[in-house]
């Protein structure tokens, strides 16, 4: 397991990054649940895994944050960021925060409405009494956060492509 360097992300970082990316794409397919009430292949095959995949994203993001903090000292210090560097850092922090808050808000909806929480067939939280404030929090945050996350992901992909095709500075290759 290679550690992160300034030239290339290590195996663990790359595995966590691309696993979360793939799972986020899967989660975006939830929008097809809105078409014909989910009565099609995507709605019937992939969408039912939405809660379990969201929980998995939460676990992977917590691992990614832990790994990034653990690797922070192993990389040589980068030159002080210019304004765009600060914007990139803020974008990454926002992306990480959204990727943690999305599943937390989704779980809040489920638990707050008394449905409990079942992940990959395992009951983690039993059905129970409604918790109105928790359901309200989840309901108010989850959908707007989904749109924000979508915008952050698009921005992340666009900037990766700018680094690859415009700046040609090798930043994108660090993640491959």
Automatic annotation (TrEMBL):
<feature type="domain" description="Cytochrome b561 bacterial/Ni-hydrogenase">
    <location>
        <begin position="8"/>
        <end position="176"/>
    </location>
</feature>
<keyword id="KW-1003">Cell membrane</keyword>
<dbReference type="InterPro" id="IPR011577">
    <property type="entry name" value="Cyt_b561_bac/Ni-Hgenase"/>
</dbReference>
<keyword id="KW-0472">Membrane</keyword>
<keyword id="KW-0813">Transport</keyword>
<comment type="similarity">
    <text>Belongs to the cytochrome b561 family.</text>
</comment>
<keyword id="KW-0408">Iron</keyword>
<feature type="transmembrane region" description="Helical">
    <location>
        <begin position="90"/>
        <end position="112"/>
    </location>
</feature>
<dbReference type="InterPro" id="IPR016174">
    <property type="entry name" value="Di-haem_cyt_TM"/>
</dbReference>
<keyword id="KW-0479">Metal-binding</keyword>
<keyword id="KW-1133">Transmembrane helix</keyword>
<feature type="transmembrane region" description="Helical">
    <location>
        <begin position="145"/>
        <end position="166"/>
    </location>
</feature>
<dbReference type="Pfam" id="PF01292">
    <property type="entry name" value="Ni_hydr_CYTB"/>
</dbReference>
<feature type="transmembrane region" description="Helical">
    <location>
        <begin position="49"/>
        <end position="69"/>
    </location>
</feature>
<protein>
    <submittedName>
        <fullName>Cytochrome b</fullName>
    </submittedName>
</protein>
<dbReference type="InterPro" id="IPR052168">
    <property type="entry name" value="Cytochrome_b561_oxidase"/>
</dbReference>
<keyword id="KW-0349">Heme</keyword>
<feature type="transmembrane region" description="Helical">
    <location>
        <begin position="12"/>
        <end position="29"/>
    </location>
</feature>
<keyword id="KW-0249">Electron transport</keyword>
<keyword id="KW-0812">Transmembrane</keyword>
């Amino acid at each position: 397991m290679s550690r992160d360097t300034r030239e290339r992300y290590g195996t663990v970082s790359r595995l966590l990054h691309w696993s979360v990316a793939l799972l986020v794409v899967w989660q975006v397919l939830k929008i097809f649940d809105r078409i014909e009430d989910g009565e099609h292949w995507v709605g019937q095959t992939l969408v039912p895994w939405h809660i379990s995949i969201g929980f998995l994203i939460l676990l992977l993001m917590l691992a990614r944050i832990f790994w990034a903090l653990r690797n922070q000292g192993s990389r040589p210090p980068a030159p002080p960021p210019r304004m765009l560097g600060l914007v990139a850092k803020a974008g990454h922090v926002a992306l990480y925060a959204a990727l943690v808050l999305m599943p937390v808000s989704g779980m809040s909806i489920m638990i707050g409405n008394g449905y409990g929480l079942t992940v990959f067939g395992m009951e983690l939280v039993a059905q129970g009494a409604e918790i109105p404030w928790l359901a309200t929090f989840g309901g108010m945050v989850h959908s707007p956060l989904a749109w924000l996350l979508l915008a952050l992901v698009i921005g992340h992909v666009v900037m990766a492509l700018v680094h690859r095709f415009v700046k040609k500075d090798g930043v994108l290759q660090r993640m491959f």
